[in-house]
Amino acid sequence: MKTAWVVEADAVAAALLAFVLERGSFSARVIGDGGEAKARLQTEAPPAVVVLEISLPRADGFELIETLRALPAWQQVPVMVVSARGDEMDIARAVRAGADAYFVKPFDPDALMNRIATVTQ
Questions:
Q1: Cα pseudo-dihedral 66, 115, 14, 8, rounded to 10
Q2: Is the pTM of this model over 0.90?
């Protein structure tokens, strides 16, 4: 079973994302803040996909994407942003940082899983 990281501070949103991913045959690992996720980049094997919120404590999603893209082992890991921040500047910034897709909350779970299926094959 493929592993997915869910980096989301809001417990309800994290649970929903984990449920959607697990329904799609992923083992979801929830990480509650950007700082913890950045620390784990150095010590854990890359998952099949990372799903993250931009607004995170200790390190925002932009910083997390930039950090993981700078690590050779993580450069090919697909990053899906699922965020309440839907401003065009935020979307463009996330894509420039290395996000593979950006979904604005409320998001369509089927669209998210279809995109993940496309990039993890």
A1: 10
A2: yes
